[in-house]
Write a structure and sequence with these properties.
- This protein is mostly helical.
- The chain has a domain at about 25-90.
- It has four helices and two strands, in the order H-H-H-H-E-E.
- Strands 1-2 form a two-stranded antiparallel ribbon.
- A hairpin with a 2-residue loop joins strand 1 (about 75-80) and strand 2.
- It is flat and about 40 Å long.
Length: about 100
C-alpha cells in the first residue's frame, strides 16, 4: 500500500513540475534509521536532510528559483556538525 502512495506522490510531483525527493529509497528501513514506523533516529534524520540537500543542490529547477545572484545566507548551504545536518534554503531579497 505504501508503495502505491509513494508512486502517486512521485507522479503528482512530475505532473506539476515539482522537485521530488525519494526519501523512501534513500533511507534504509532498519532500527538504525527509524525509531518506529513514523519517526527517524538522529541518523535517519541526518540521512533525510542530506538527501534533500543533494536533490536541491543538483536540481536545475531549484537553481533557477534561486537565481544566479543568490549568496549566503540566502542561497543553499549544507551544515553538518556533531551528527546534525541542516538545510537552509532561501532566495536573495531584492533591494
Amino acid at each position: 500500500m505504501h508503495k502505491l502512495y509513494n508512486d502517486i506522490i512521485e507522479q503528482v510531483a512530475a505532473r506539476h513540475s515539482v522537485i521530488f525527493v525519494d526519501a523512501n529509497k534513500a533511507i534504509p528501513k532498519t532500527s538504525e534509521y527509524h525509531r518506529d514506523y513514523v519517526h527517524f533516529t538522529d541518523k535517519g534524520a541526518l540521512t533525510l536532510a542530506s538527501t534533500i540537500f543533494e536533490v536541491l543542490k543538483n536540481s536545475s529547477q531549484f537553481k533557477n528559483y534561486l537565481g544566479e545572484d543568490s549568496r549566503e545566507p540566502y542561497g543553499l548551504q549544507k551544515n553538518v556538525q556533531s551528527n546534525r545536518c541542516s538545510v537552509s534554503v532561501g532566495a536573495a531579497a531584492e533591494s
